[in-house]
Amino acid sequence: xxxxxxxxxxxxxxxxxxxxxxxxxxxxxxxxxxxxxxxxxxxxxxxxxxxxxxxxxxxxxxxxxxxxxxxxxxxxxxxxxxxxxxxxxxxxxxxxxxxxxxxxxxxxxxxxxxxxxxxxxxxxxxxxxxxxxxxxxxxxxxxxxxxxxxxxxxxxxxxxxxxxxxxxxxxxxxxxxxxxxxxxxxxxxxxxxxxxxxxxxxxxxxxxxxxxxxxxxxxxxxxxxxxxxxxxxxxxxxxxxxxxxxxxxxxxxxxxxxxxxxxxxxxxxxxxxxxxxxxxxxxxxxxxxxxxxxxxxxxxxxxxxxxxxxxxxxxxxxxxxxxxxxxxxx
Length: 330
Fold this sequence. Notes:
8-stranded parallel β-barrel
């Protein structure tokens, strides 16, 4: 009998499909549905660093009102409806943990090291099984060097590691001059896992109204190629660090490809927005059927089989594939 059971960040999972942070995971009721549909674990909708800053600012403003003093304003974020306050988020962690028996991972979306360390400890006390640190920042300052950008990321990881004893997973973007170096340094700062990749949402421009037009686009199946390639390159090269694949995982075979590249788990989001929770069961059926057909006893037996570390032609993962693809193309 083929087993889909695995582990991730030291947590036991009934299968390697993890529902990633989104509005799909913002209530205990939704977590129940995801569990019933087959999810191996869930990552709660992110709490943003700006929410914590706004919350602290509002407290300062309330205290200052009697003195006719205004606290510094976070102007850009005051008009955003974050829906869940920091206190509500702790309640979500608590109710989510009581609602399901699969791992529940909290998510903090931050830009850099800040004042959110104490709040991370509150998340741990609320009962989260692990913490995802989703670092999302656009370094638009031409005076800032790549080394300075990387240092800010690493300092954020260090702050999270110092704040909690929970398993720590860091979600990264692909935009580094040396991604392997950054990943290695993140592991050295105490992270247990890395998710590849965060998607930078690209706003469009509205020529009629001369304004920026924000629109969320769901991932496409071809988006899986970038994380798949990098996980295959990095698998086995950073001691004591696990990889999770996120982006473009729309079916069971793509999830298996991610695992064959070296991922511990495959994160699913856009496919569920398109096909609802029941799609998890279809993906799991496809995965189990393929593993049985190929006579794998467990999904763990497939892990890393198509990584560079296990390839008879390691160069094919780097420049050779690129040259073969372009030479003679018409």
